[in-house]
Amino acid sequence: MSVLLENKKKWKVLEKTVLVTTNFFSLRTEKCELPDKRVMSKYYVFNCKDWVQVVPVTDQNQILMVSQYRHAAREHFYEFPGGVVDEGESFEVAAQRELTEETGYQAGSLVYLGSHFPNPALQENQLHIFAAYNCKKVGSQNLDAFEDIDIHLLDENKITDIINQSGQHALMLTSYLMFMNQKNKK
Fold it and tell me: What pTM value is reported for the model?
């Protein structure tokens, strides 16, 4: 939570109704009372598991990205490896697992950069960001049944070119900003 906003009044949840439950998320409505006593009868909330994302850097100082098709946007996107944190799994273990599964690379060290809310208007979950250093190829990809992921080794100039194109994946941009902020503090 932002330090500047911590004293703001919150909505009071009066009722919750679960509409849909899947392996990936649940969707519910909430009846909410606002601080001024107005009542919103249906506010929709997605309950998703937390996610991790890894900005992997190789020994040669290249940044490892993946590309995959995202059907809702009907486009392929450059992304950093990542995915859902499994039940009982630490963020760090999830980050290393996702990196290895999606790329076949393993990190020599992981640095936690922080977290952000992917879409706080609709989702409860957070995305936890890691920088992964000294990444080395240790095997092949071990993808989920419907993943189709290509691996790219890029330098920072190429990533800047990608960022400057419109229509990019917003979560990747935020994660890269957090990575560059940490890098510039060193």
Answer: 0.90
